[in-house]
Amino acid sequence: MLRYVTTNPGKVREAEEYLGEGVSQLDYDYTEIQSDDLGTIAARGAREAYRHAGEPTLVDDAGLFVRALDGFPGPYSSYAEDTIGVERTWELAREEDDRAASFRCVLAYCDGEGFDASPDPVDVDDRVAAAAAGPEADDDRETLPVKLFEGRVRGTLVEPRGEGGFGFDPIFEHEGATFAEMDEAEKNAISHRGRALAKFAEWHAER
């Protein structure tokens, strides 16, 4: 059984579209380290969740990357949403000539085993991630490799529109509609998480 670490059952439903019924939700509060890299954050979470559950685990980390703002809010998207908010983020981007942005998602998979070579990267630097988490999280246990799968969708920041979705969905427009204007099926069909899941599902089927 593959355990998807999330408190959001909607993510599990989306994963089931790609992986079938062999995935279940694991509500586990892993340590979310501070890093400018989505993969480092997700990999640290996947290792910790695997050590907790003792089963193959999948952790994701995602963010909104605004080109004119040097990638902000990026991995700090959740914090930015909670502090400055969606409207203020739009106001920052509105002053820019270039409003290009992308939603990115990295899925991190850990099952305690090594991985054969493939185009998708493997994170093996457990020491760096542990150090970022703080001395209380560091230990001498064997390093666990983590396989990473990235998905992204490009778009443009616009004035908030739509009542659906969550987070920065109302200000992210893709091919004429914001994510908040799409229903769940429409959004999942083109989402950054869906694209990462599609890569993972293809690889996992041969695992």
Automatic annotation (TrEMBL):
Any GO BP: nucleoside triphosphate catabolic process
InterPro entries hit by this protein: ITPase-like_fam, RdgB/HAM1
Entry superkingdom: Archaea
SUPFAM superfamilies: ITPase-like
Enzyme Commission number(s) from the entry: 3.6.1.19
Pfam families: Ham1p_like
GO MF terms, alphabetically ordered: nucleoside triphosphate diphosphatase activity
Keyword tags: Hydrolase
EC class of the enzyme, as a word: hydrolase
GO cellular component: a single term: cytoplasm
Membership in a protein family: Belongs to the HAM1 NTPase family.
PANTHER family attached to this UniProt entry: INOSINE TRIPHOSPHATE PYROPHOSPHATASE, INOSINE TRIPHOSPHATE PYROPHOSPHATASE/HAM1 PROTEIN
Record's protein name: Non-canonical purine NTP pyrophosphatase
